[in-house]
Amino acid sequence: GKGRGLAIAGIVLSCLWIVGGIAGFALRGSGSGASAADDPGTTRPTPGQTKPQEVGVTTMKVGDCINDDKVASNTTGESVEVESVKIVPCRGPHHGEVLAVFKLPGDILPSENQLSRLAEEGCQKRISGKIRRDPAANSLATSMYYPTLELWMSGERDVTCVVVSATEGKKLTRPIRG
Q1: In sequence order, what are the residues at sequence separation of 6 or more whose Cβ sits closer than 8 angstroms to the Cβ of residue 106?
Q2: Domain-located, residue 4
């Protein structure tokens, strides 16, 4: 594996209100790079399990519900360092649910703005329909974890698209019905 120092680095929390268009603030960070092979915390909770499992940000999978205290406590819109998240049961309180994971195209190094835009556009394309089908669509927003420029140069291309509450400080309490 790449070792603990190189996981996904970027997170952008851009609020996508389905009826109101797009508003947002960027939260981008750098991460730790634990791979599934060298990270002992990559097992997922079983349905009856209530203890969160901490995993590197590159190991999140579609259907995972997560808690990310660094993002939840960031109200400034400034970049944050994100190395890991906690996988928690979807039927309990959680900050977000992973709805899509995809690879950014290309080998040419983009600017930070281009990287953020590509991640945001890719997530909107992949999860906006799922969000619209949920009964609580008007109270949901999107968040995305994407690689920093440094991680891009080391070959990391994965973007993880997460649905979150559009209300600051509020957690989701059930799986998304997309």
Answers
A1: none
A2: no
